[in-house]
Request: fold
Amino acid sequence: MNLITKFLIVVLAFVTTHVMAQDFQGEATYKTHRQMNIQLDSSQVSSEMHQRMMDMMKKQFEKTYILSFNKEESVYKEDKELEAPQPAGMQLVMVNTSGSDILYKNTKDQRFASQNEVYGKIFLVKDEIEKREWQLTNETKNIGDYTSYKATFTREAPVVRSFISVNGDNDPDEDEANAEPETETITVTAWYTPDIPVNNGPGRYDGLPGLILEVNDGPTTIMCSRIVLNPQKAVTIEEPAKGKKVNQKEYDEIMEKKAKEMRERYNSDRDDGHNVKIRIGG
Reply:
């Protein structure tokens, strides 16, 4: 009788743990920030206009995202609000193709699906999750109510160039625009908490033994501002299915070609208006 009782207890504990693992879910809110320091020729751009430009660009990169997750899957997308209108007499054209409108990740199968709308077309990028060689440390700090641990990895990345055009005057010349991109080594720092046992995080950051709450990657910072575990309303995680299907390499090649076409079009489409065109990227 005692043997049967012990067996039932073990089975019950296993089933309970399995059900809890399946039901475990949550939502994390992240805020992004990007450091920017762009100097313009004072003979072409007044200090007032420079400040207005910097405020507009800051607004473009300070966004809020929601990560909906369970033990194996997640969806990461922007929490969109009404955008502030651009000041009268100024047009700001931002070209940034590195983000995702909807990013789905399956950490069990090590794959992702990224739905992006750029240049008026929707792409569905499907590929394997990139494996990173994280270096775990014992360094800790508190983020909200959670004890977080530091982890780092290094990556090679193109040197980010910001092309500023005021009525076409400051566009890069053809040799500069077509030159091979310089690279630099960037140390990415993440802070994760084992208290939330999912190997996931914001954007493309994952692979640590706990939810990533903060990321510092070059000029970009991502900070978790709110976490809700097992909310009363069940979290919905759906893999995106809309768009032209490509893998990551194909998508990068398409974006590089489109960016070159846009530069050529902007260079040939100059007018007498007060337009400011900015391209941020390699």
